[in-house]
Design brief:
With about 325 residues, the protein is of the alpha/beta class. The protein folds into two domains: about 5-235, Spore Coat Polysaccharide Biosynthesis Protein SpsA, Chain A (Alpha-Beta Complex), CATH 3.90.550.10; about 240-320. The chain is built from eleven helices and seven strands. It has a seven-stranded mixed sheet with strand order 3-2-1-4-6-5-7, sandwiched between helices. β1 (about 5-10), α1 (about 15-20) and β2 (about 30-35) form a beta-alpha-beta unit. α5 (about 130-145) packs parallel to α8 (about 215-240). The two termini are about 20 Å apart.
Length: about 325
């Protein structure tokens, strides 16, 4: 297997050379992507790096971390690489962990691996409380919108993927900035790829995050809702019509009917100054309760509807047959 590393480079001059030096001999190519860095990180690497494996790529304009990684992905596919590992250039990801990320891919137990800083209680001791809370909330939203209920820490950028799987994804449509990792999970779910978490420790110094919660929260919510709707339509209506579809549709219809019926009769009772009859109350409450039960059943079905057979295994078999 030919393994490559992709490093997005944007204002990482203090750490990027140390990151490159720590990458082990199992890696064949290192793609350092200068994402229109105002500090000239690409030129800096070319002038000071002594590792012959490094290949500097340049984006003509700043495309964000997603745009930088897509540039590296496309180069890895063109160069015939088998696995691409993404490591940030800011020194917060330990390159010596790379074999742990690659191993499940080599053993065909997963198509995509990602870091999880929440796996051990000790791993989050250095994480700022606001990041801890925000990451937990984002993790739940991602589980809901992307369908990978078995993963945590969705914004973790330490990842590895088979290039065979990359070829199945619309790389040009991937989100280019902060939502890149989440959109990657959504796209992987649409092709039923197996995703596995890899435990890792968090590394934080005194740096200030560029992620402004108040600014990006409305955008994140909108994008999560969009992907939740698209995932539901694709998985439960277009691709398959199953018991989960029946649970969800029955639950929504029952809940909506009970809500409308109950609210309308409550308004009428308030205007007429007459209490609603017990039959009216029951007729409103029963659909509401039944709707909640059906939606809970749908959630349970969705949690159990995870991809279990690695996509890369089937792709390997197709290549051998051809």
């Amino acid at each position: 297997m030919r393994i490559a590393v992709a490093i997005p480079c944007y204002k990482v001059l203090q750490h990027v050379l140390g990151v490159i030096e720590a990458i082990g001999p199992e890696v064949e190519v290192i793609y350092a992507v200068d994402d229109a860095c105002p500090e000239g990180s690409g030129r800096f690497i070319e002038q000071n790096n002594r590792d012959p494996r490094v290949r500097v790529l340049y984006n003509p304009e700043n495309r964000g971390v997603g745009g930088a990684i897509v540039t590296a992905y496309q180069a890895a596919i063109a160069d015939g690489m088998d696995i691409v590992v993404k490591i940030d250039g800011d020194g917060q990801m330990n390159p010596t962990l790379l074999p742990k990320f690659v191993r499940p891919l080599l053993q065909k137990r997963a198509d995509y691996t990602k870091g999880n800083r929440f796996y051990r209680p000790e791993s989050v001791q250095g994480m700022p409380p606001m990041r801890l809370f925000g990451n937990g909330a984002l993790s739940f939203l991602t589980k809901l919108s992307c369908g990978y209920w078995n993963v945590m820490d969705p914004t973790n950028g330490y990842t590895a993927i088979r290039t065979q799987v990359l070829k199945e994804l619309p790389l040009e449509k991937l989100e280019q900035r902060y939502f890149f990792e989440t959109d990657m999970l959504f796209r992987l779910n649409t092709i039923r790829a197996v995703v596995k978490d890899i435990p890792m420790d968090s590394v934080y110094a005194d740096e200030e995050s560029n992620l402004k919660i108040g600014k990006i929260l409305p955008e994140f919510l909108r994008k999560h809702l969009s992907r939740l709707w698209r995932r539901y339509v694709y998985n439960y209506i277009v691709r398959d019509f199953n018991v989960g579809t029946l649970y969800s549709l029955t639950g929504i219809l029952s809940f909506v009917f009970g809500s409308i019926f109950g609210i309308s009769h409550w308004i009428m009772s308030s205007q007429n100054h007459q209490p609603a009859t017990s039959g009216t109350v029951m007729l409103a409450a029963l659909p509401l309760l039944a709707g909640i039960q059906f939606l809970v059943a749908f959630m349970h079905y969705d949690v159990g509807n995870l991809p279990t057979e690695p996509l890369s295994q089937n792709l390997d078999e197709e290549i051998l047959e051809s």
